[in-house]
Amino acid sequence: MGNYHLLEIEFENNGQKQTITPVLLQDDRDLILVDCGYPGFIPQLEEAANRYGLTLASITKLIVTHHDMDHIGSLAALKRAYPQISIVAPELEAPYIEGKSKSLRLEQAESTLSVLPDEAKSQAEQFIRYLQSIEPIPVDQTVSNDERLPWCDGIDVIHTPGHMPGHISLYLPASKTLIAGDVVVIEHGKLNIANPQFTMDLPEAVRSVQRLLDYEIDQLICYHGGLFHGDVKQALRQLLREYAS
């Protein structure tokens, strides 16, 4: 059975401590990174991989769950440093990653600028410039809903839109593990929708949580929150009840 490793990366952002959890999937042929952090995160990724005796130079593929800056920020730099890495992304997300379409997060930030109070505009403009600085990168392979990828004992692609229209999660049937991306996050030990106030389509995001109940999940890994401890299906149902009320 293939192995997975959680790359917990702690850092400070605007004076606040944060953690993201990219994942490395490993078998005897491939080392696959799922999502890659903010711009400039290659040293942090390398340090996290080294904890497992692995290096970024051994990565063969990088799967992107969606085009938010904390998931693709280091994508172009990684490809430059390690050109053997094949970039794999959802078909619906590829135009944004490649720069053929404007980032939806950038469009969202620009659309709210005019309604912000003057004292908040400077920070918002800084955020817009940051989003504009994310470097586009060609996608080598696109994937779509219900596709099974043949690597690491099989990786099932689940289209989980809402947070972003093309967002995917990954299911590893051999270990009954779900790599959630941002379909759910862990906050104070509980599951929640990722940034509901910035989610592109909140009702769709809730439906995506509902869809996860179709899978037997023993381990749930959230990009924000890491490994969930507890009964996954019970926690998913509780989250759905909260959004149904």
Please explain how this structure is put together.
The chain is α/β, with parallel strands linked by helices. 29% of the residues lie in helices and 25% in strands. The protein has eight helices and 16 strands. A hairpin with a 4-residue loop joins strand 11 and strand 12 (177-181). The radius of gyration is 17 Å and the shape is globular. The termini are far apart. The mean pLDDT is 96.
Q: What is the CATH architecture assignment?
A: 4-Layer Sandwich
Q: Strand content of the residues, in percent? A: 25-35%
Q: What is the H/E string? A: EEEEEHEHHEHHHEEEEEEEHEEH
CATH topology: Metallo-beta-lactamase, Chain A
Number of domains: 1
As a percent range, the share of helical residues equals 25-40%
Shape by Cα distribution = globular
Q: Structural class per helix/strand content? A: alpha/beta
User: What is the CA-atom radius of gyration, in angstroms?
Assistant: 17 Å
Number of helices: 8
Mean pLDDT: 96
Low-pLDDT runs of 5+ residues are: none
CATH class: Alpha Beta
CATH superfamily: Ribonuclease Z/Hydroxyacylglutathione hydrolase-like
Tell me the strand order in the biggest sheet.
1-4-5-6-7-8
Catalytic activity: 3',5'-cyclic CMP + H2O = CMP + H(+); 3',5'-cyclic UMP + H2O = UMP + H(+)
InterPro entries: Metallo-B-lactamas, NDM-1-like, RibonucZ/Hydroxyglut_hydro
Keywords: Hydrolase
Function: Counteracts the endogenous Pycsar antiviral defense system. Phosphodiesterase that enables metal-dependent hydrolysis of host cyclic nucleotide Pycsar defense signals such as cCMP and cUMP.
